[in-house]
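Just curious. Protein, please.
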Amino acid sequence: MPKRRHVVITGGGRGIGAEIARTFAKLGDRITVLARTREEVEGVADEVGGYGVRCDVGEPASVEAAFMAAGPVDILINNAGVARSSPVLKTDVRVWEEHMKVNLTGSFLCSLKVLPGMSSRGNGRIINIASVAGLKGYPYLAAYCASKHGLIGLTRALAAEYADKGVTVNAICPGYVEGPLLEHSIQNIVDKTGRDIAEVRQELEDRSPQHRFLDAEEIAAMCVFLASEAARGVNGQALSVCGGEINV
């Protein structure tokens, strides 16, 4: 009988994170969901029969408390993230710092909590949910692009440092995925430009050669693969799931 792994998912209260929690729960794994609000963590945790912990991933004390409560971790999925758009000259330094704190520092702090245990056991998986914006520049997304490029750099550095300790560290780089973050981005464009929602959606869909948005299930499936023994040789990679928008 396969071992019941402990999977911790940050930003697991909605969207991609919630779908990842559902997918691993169906495999029989034990799930801990981390998110900023009690409503989000409790809702998904109850749904998947897991454990919910409030956590602000950018705050060291919050991360420390959350991982002490969670216990040993077999698979960490750093999914918590923010995305704000604005011309670079109108990007407030507080917005810049928020992106770095959540998208990059949060993944760093959470990884620090699990690496010692994974290393001592000789097995572990860290999967960072990055973005195609970590591989390519996009206008009006300077802070987001910089934070996700940094996350891929962190992924590669940790992968190199822990490659001989049975731990793999990889990043998944999705294109636009149906869910709350995409809806927020579309509404932001509509509010700033006065354009029609349907027009904005179509324009963003057409950035993909497949002319569609991704489903969260597609990202969850990639997480399952990277967490499997079949993927033990995949390490330090930034894997695009974007319908062919970019090829690297």
The beta strands are 6-10, 30-35, 51-54, 75-78, 124-129, 167-174, 238-241. Helices lie at 15-26, 38-48, 60-70, 93-121, 142-162, 180-193, 197-205, 216-226.
